[in-house]
Design brief:
It is a single chain. By secondary structure, this protein is mainly beta. β3 and β4 form a beta hairpin. It has five helices and 21 strands. The chain is globular.
C-alpha cells in the first residue's frame, strides 16, 4: 500500500500561533457569560470574526451544529447538550481572528471540511507542473481554503452551499467543477436507523450528514490517464489525555499490511495496538503520528472514545473496496490510484517545540471520480457524538464497533 505523505499542514505550524483565545469567557447572544470549551463560546467567537455563520438545531435545542459559509460550508463544531454543552470541534482561534489570511493554507479547524484530492503525484491539484514536491511549492487551492461559498438554502434542519471553480493539475489537465455541499441535522430516529441501533434515553447525541456533490462542468470527460479528482473530508476534534481512536477492519489474510503507520516514523506500540480486526490509536494531541487504511480492508465506520468526557464519536464514511482511490504521495507515482480511504492523525509538538493544536483528526475520501462531461460524483458521510452514562455508551460501542470500552480503558 502506498504511503501518503500527510498534509504538510503541520510543516506550516511555525507560522501559526498557539491555539489559545485571548479570553476564557465571552458574552453570548443571551447576554450571559459563556466559557471557552462550550458550544455557545464557539458560536459567539465565529459570529464575531466571520460574515456568515449558520446554525442547525433540534426542536429542544439540545443537538446543534455550527456551519460557516466563509469557510467553504464547513461544519465548525457541534454539541449534544445545548449552548452550555461541550463543543466537539477544534477551532484555531488565533487564525480565525487574524486580519490576514495565510498564503499556502489556513488551518482554521472544524469538525468536517471539504477538500479534494489528490494532494501529491503527477495528478496533484496542490502542485503546479514542473514544481518539486516539497513544502515550498505546496499550495491549497483557494476554492477549498479561502473562498466563501454561496448559501443556496438554509433552515434549522439543513443548509446547502454552492461553489464553482477551475483548477489545473500537475499534468496540465484543467477541471471545471461545480460543488454542492448539503449538511443535514439528523433526528434521533434517522440517526438510529442509519446506525441500526437504539439510542438509550440516558444518552445525549448530535448527528449530521454531509452530502457532497461535484459536477464536471467542463467540455471534456475526466479520465484516468489525465488524472481524476476525489472528495476528501477531514474532521478536527478536541482531544483529551484519554482519547482513543477505534477503527474496525475486515480480518482478511495479511490485513496488517494494508494499514499504513509510518507517515511520521514508527508509532510506539503502546500508542497503536492492532488486533485481527480492530486498531486502537492513542489520540491525545501529544505525539505527531498518523495511520491509514486501504479500501481493501476498511469498513464503513471509524470512531473515537474520550474517557475523560465520556464522549463516543462515530464517523460513517462510504467505502468501495473495488474502486480506485487517488494516491496523494508527494512524488511521481507508479500507482496513482492506490490510496487510503480512512485516515486518523494525532497532533503533537514538532522538533522545534511548536504545535498548532492539540487536536486529532479522522479523515475519509471518496473513490476517484471518472466523470463524463456534465456528470456528477457524490460522496456522503455521517458524523455523530454520544455523551452520557458510561454503561450505556459501553453497550453502544459494543454494538457499533464490537469492542469493550473497559478493556480499552485498561
Amino acid at each position: 500500500m502506498n504511503i501518503v505523505k500527510y498534509s504538510c499542514i503541520f510543516l506550516l505550524i511555525m507560522n501559526t500561533a498557539c491555539n489559545t483565545a485571548t479570553e476564557k469567557t465571552t458574552t453570548g447572544d443571551s447576554g450571559k457569560k459563556v466559557s471557552k470549551g462550550t458550544y455557545a463560546y464557539d458560536v459567539d467567537f465565529l459570529k464575531s470574526h466571520t460574515a456568515k455563520a449558520l446554525e442547525l438545531s433540534s426542536e429542544d435545542g439540545s443537538s446543534k451544529v455550527l456551519l460557516s459559509a466563509d469557510y467553504q460550508g464547513r461544519v465548525i463544531t457541534s454539541t449534544a447538550t445545548g449552548d452550555t454543552g461541550t463543543s466537539f470541534g477544534w477551532l484555531n482561534y488565533n487564525l480565525i481572528s487574524a486580519t490576514e489570511k495565510k498564503k499556502q493554507f489556513n488551518p482554521v479547524g472544524g469538525e468536517e471540511r471539504f477538500w479534494m484530492g489528490p494532494e501529491g503525484g503527477q495528478y496533484s491539484i496542490y502542485f503546479k507542473a514542473g514544481d518539486s514536491f516539497n513544502i515550498a511549492h505546496w499550495q491549497v487551492p483557494s476554492f477549498i481554503d479561502t473562498e466563501m461559498y454561496e448559501v443556496s438554502q438554509s433552515d434549522k434542519s439543513s443548509a446547502t452551499f454552492l461553489k464553482k471553480a477551475s483548477i489545473t493539475n500537475f499534468s496540465g489537465t484543467k477541471f471545471d467543477v461545480a460543488v454542492e455541499r448539503k449538511i443535514s441535522l439528523l433526528s434521533k430516529e434517522t440517526l438510529a436507523a442509519k446506525l441500526q441501533i437504539s439510542i438509550p434515553a440516558n444518552i445525549h447525541f448530535v448527528g449530521f450528514e454531509t452530502d457532497n456533490k461535484v459536477t464536471n462542468t467542463g467540455t471534456n470527460d475526466w479520465t484516468k490517464d489525465k488524472g481524476l479528482l476525489s472528495i476528501w473530508l477531514l474532521g478536527m476534534f478536541t482531544p483529551s489525555s484519554e482519547t482513543t481512536v477505534i477503527i474496525p477492519f475486515h480480518p482478511i489474510a495479511n490485513a496488517r499490511s494494508y494499514i499504513t503507520d509510518n507517515y511520521f516514523g514508527s508509532i510506539p506500540p503502546e500508542r497503536l495496538k492492532v488486533s485481527d480486526s480492530v486498531l486502537y490509536f492513542t489520540c491525545d494531541g501529544k505525539l505527531r503520528s498518523k495511520i491509514g487504511l486501504s479500501p481493501l480492508i476498511a469498513k464503513p465506520i471509524a470512531a473515537s472514545y474520550d474517557f475523560q468526557k465520556n464522549v463516543l464519536t462515530v464517523i460513517i464514511p462510504q467505502v468501495d473496496k473495488s474502486a480506485a482511490y487517488v494516491n496523494s504521495k508527494w512524488e511521481l507515482q507508479k500507482e496513482p490510484y492506490k490510496g487510503d480511504v480512512i485516515n486518523s492523525y494525532n497532533d503533537g509538538p514538532l522538533a522545534d517545540g511548536t504545535q498548532m493544536g492539540p487536536f486529532y483528526e479522522v479523515e475519509s475520501s471518496s473513490h476517484a471520480m471518472e466523470l463524463k462531461k456534465g456528470a456528477t460524483g457524490e460522496y456522503k458521510e455521517t458524523t455523530c457524538h454520544f455523551q452520557g452514562d458510561y454503561d450505556a455508551l459501553k453497550q453502544l460501542a459494543k454494538q457499533l464497533l464490537g469492542v469493550d470500552l473497559d478493556t480499552i480503558k485498561k
